[in-house]
Write a structure and sequence with these properties.
- This protein is of the alpha+beta class.
- The protein folds into two domains: 213 residues, Nucleotidyltransferase, domain 5; 84 residues, General secretion pathway protein M, EpsM (Gyrase A, domain 2, 2-Layer Sandwich).
- It is built from eleven helices and 17 strands.
- The chain has a five-stranded mixed beta sheet with strand order 3-2-1-4-8.
- Strand 1 and strand 2 form a beta hairpin.
- Helix 2 packs parallel to helix 8.
- It is globular, with a radius of gyration of 24 Å.
Length: 406
């Protein structure tokens, strides 16, 4: 069938794209105008698109046909998305053993733009895959690629994310908490020369294997490319014509039976969708409860990762706007407090809020003595600390501390 060629999309401001072919070892990555690349690559082409533009999530719907799932997915995810579902494209992966269904969500406009640019020079890609899902994946391990401005995580065949470098430590810890039932046994970290990451990864109860990321990250993705893996966005109306025709031909022998089965299921479909909507509402309520504990000022819940990034951006904006008072901003206060919060016994932080130069942290500690000791450690880092509340709950103490610069 020939080799698969990888092209990084979209083209940069100069109209250049990175491209290479997968295989064993590190393959060279070239950067050329897209029209020139079209004359070099073979017929099997994969567009590698920015992971920052794609939400990779998971739902557990009831058993249903592919067509029924396509109709139900927007309703399942509507309340967790920040834009109208009519503007989005939903792609799914194979159903997992526990009934879970991997889902990728991306703006339809972006997929149209990517495919139009490729087809304009005669390239018809056989797959469109988010960059994080092409990272090499080893048994029992998560893969992390650190770059100066962004970070990719692949936590499963069809799981992962891409995020700005400044926020990846928090996002990684959140992902590990969500994976409590199936945690990784080790973390493989690729990074280029001059890229740090040690501080953000410190304190993880997880073995870390550091590996060198040489040259263009697309070379690493080419080494991890496995045809059939990685959630493909080229589905539905974006599917290649040849693939769609083949599927239709395969369905012809069973078309009559399928029509009969759909007729029998028609009466059940409405009930199932109502059940899905009820389940989605329950999940939304649970998500809202957790989110409001961290950000009480939030009135409407959107996708947790997207909203977390928005909140962090807003906090960074407040910190950056401090001018000469920058040493009193959010990042400065959090940086000074971080060392004390990491010292054993570490408090369990459940909420952080910043406003008007004051940082409020809600946490749980074993007892009041540990709370007092933490207060003294924080004050030793040039912080004014006030205990706003301290209540005994179960076998511990839930406290709220207010930190500010003197």
């Amino acid at each position: 069938m020939g080799e698969r060629w990888l092209i990084g999309f979209p083209p940069d401001r100069e109209g250049l794209v990175g491209w290479t072919r997968p295989g064993e070892g590190v393959r060279p990555v070239r950067r050329d105008p897209l029209a020139r690349v079209a004359g070099e690559v073979g017929r099997r082409v994969v567009l590698v698109v920015p992971g920052e533009e794609v939400l990779l999530t998971r739902v557990v719907p009831p058993r249903a046909s592919q067509r029924e799932l396509e109709k139900a997915l927007p309703y399942l995810l509507e309340e967790s998305l920040s834009v109208p579902v009519e503007t989005l494209h939903f792609a799914t992966g194979p159903r997992q053993a526990d009934g879970g269904l991997p889902v990728a969500v991306v703006a339809e406009r972006l997929v149209d733009e990517w495919l139009e640019q490729a087809r304009a020079v005669g390239i018809t890609p056989e797959a469109v895959i988010p960059a994080p899902l092409l990272l090499p994946l080893e048994p029992g391990a998560w893969s992390l690629a650190l770059m100066p401005e962004r970070v990719w995580l692949r936590s499963g065949v069809n799981r992962g994310w891409a995020i700005e470098a400044e926020s990846f430590g928090f996002a990684l810890r959140l992902a590990l908490e969500e994976a409590v039932g199936d945690p990784p046994r080790r973390l493989i970290v690729w990074r280029g020369a001059g890229v740090g990451g040690e501080e953000a990864l410190s304190g993880l109860d997880l073995p870390i294997e550091w590996r060198t990321l040489e040259g263009d990250p697309l070379a690493l993705l080419a080494a991890g490319d496995r045809p059939g893996e990685g959630l493909d966005l080229a589905q539905g109306r974006f599917a290649p014509t040849g693939r769609l025709s083949g599927v239709l031909r395969a369905l012809r022998p069973t078309l009559a039976l399928a029509c009969l089965w759909l007729a029998l299921r028609a009466g059940e479909t409405g009930w199932e969708i109502r059940q899905l909507e009820a389940r989605a509402m329950e999940l939304d309520q649970a998500i809202e409860q957790v989110f409001r504990e961290s950000f009480p000022e939030v009135k409407r819940i959107v996708n947790p990762r997207v909203q977390m990034n928005q909140q962090l951006e807003a906090l960074r904006g407040q910190a950056g706007g401090a001018g000469a008072e920058g040493d009193k901003g959010f990042l400065a206060l959090l940086g000074r407090a971080g060392g004390s919060l990491r010292e054993p016994p570490q408090p369990l932080v459940s909420g952080i809020r910043y406003a008007e130069g004051k940082l409020e942290i809600t946490m749980r500690l074993p007892d009041l003595q540990r709370l007092d000791a933490l207060k003294k450690r924080l004050e030793s880092h040039a912080l004014t600390v006030a205990i706003q509340s301290a209540n005994r709950e179960g076998d511990g103490v839930v406290a709220r501390l207010r930190l500010e610069s003197p």
